[in-house]
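Support reply, case 0932

Customer input (verbatim):
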Amino acid sequence: MSFMGTLHPHLYCFPMTMPRSTSPLGKPSNLFWIATGVSGLFAAFNFANAFFLAYFPLFLEQIKFTPVQIAFVIALPNIVRIFATPIMTSISDRAGRRRHSMALFSVVALLSFWVLIYASDYWVVIGLVIFLSIFYTPIQPLQDAYAYETVHTLGLNYGPMRSWGSIAFVVATLIGGWYLSFGEPADLLFLTVGSLGLLAVVAVLLPGMPSESRSVTKESVWSAEELRDPQFLLVVLSGGLLLGSFSALYAFASIYWLSVGISDAMVGGLWALGTLAEIGIFVWGAFFLRHLGAWGLMVTGGVASIIRWLLFPFATEAWSAIILQLLHAGSFGMVFLGVVSYLSKLVSNKRLATAQGLFQTAFGAVMGISGIASGWLYEVEQAYAFYLMSGICMAGVLTLLLVSKRV
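Our regenerated output:
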């Protein structure tokens, strides 16, 4: 079953471009509902992820975990991502079952989250986080692979569809900031559970893409030269370094802002503001890609990240924190859009999920290692954790300078 329906003319304002396909799926009415479905995938995942990223550390703090323990638990999904994501995405690519993989992984992850809400023992939490991460971390690269295949085959516009994920993230963080003024962080994780259930439904309803065919992908994805291309590997490494620098933000931003006297509601607003800045990049993604290119977007975002993390410890008042959060447009929005666009140009459709999985692996390795290190550093001196992130971004920008194929 797929998202189909009748398109009213005024709905062409929806995030899509005119089709390049002559297949039945390329009919304008079908394109609208496919774009709606892909946007729904991003929205459901990011709504779930917002509560996990922004408020799970507060849940851990509430059940008396130390900063080192919090940093380790937050780093675990990224450590697991190193091994699980390339394996799970390559299995999905080879089987030609991206949509069904997303649905299955979402159901397993939501059940794991549900149990996690009631856990308080350190080792039980670690075991649950490891298990759920095996299924949770591959969802995003599978989404991006599916979305970019609709771009290539149907002429849809990735940036505006992805922006709905950012909008959902904003809504979630605002809900979380409001709820924390009277409720408990653990309650917010129930919304993660519900969102993953919605994601599973949307994934099943979307139509299959050409690459979702066993006859096309039955050979080993690892035998492909395109996945061993030095240019591809450099982009993966640099993207991993630049986005892996977010480990201290995800582990300690909410805790840090509250510790310097910023209110609960403002903490939610800061998360939302950063994502609003990111939305602008996605909505106008075609413009930025046309003028800066994928490589230029990554470099610009990397420089923004270096500045952001160097100044983060000094943003102890709401106005200064707001200014730095606006740099999220570059440090996440530009880098992420640059990476996924670059990979889509270097890798064929049938291996896009594997390529995105390898990027997630690099990002997870950096985030896992730096996340653990940031926990130790944060306990010694809060600022040191963010200085480490700035150094990682410098390494990412330097790696980009080694890329000769600058698309």
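We compared this against your earlier run and they match. Two observations from our side: The CA atoms of residues 238 and 392 lie 10 Å apart. DSSP finds 16 helices and no strands in the chain. Please reopen the case if you see a mismatch on your end.
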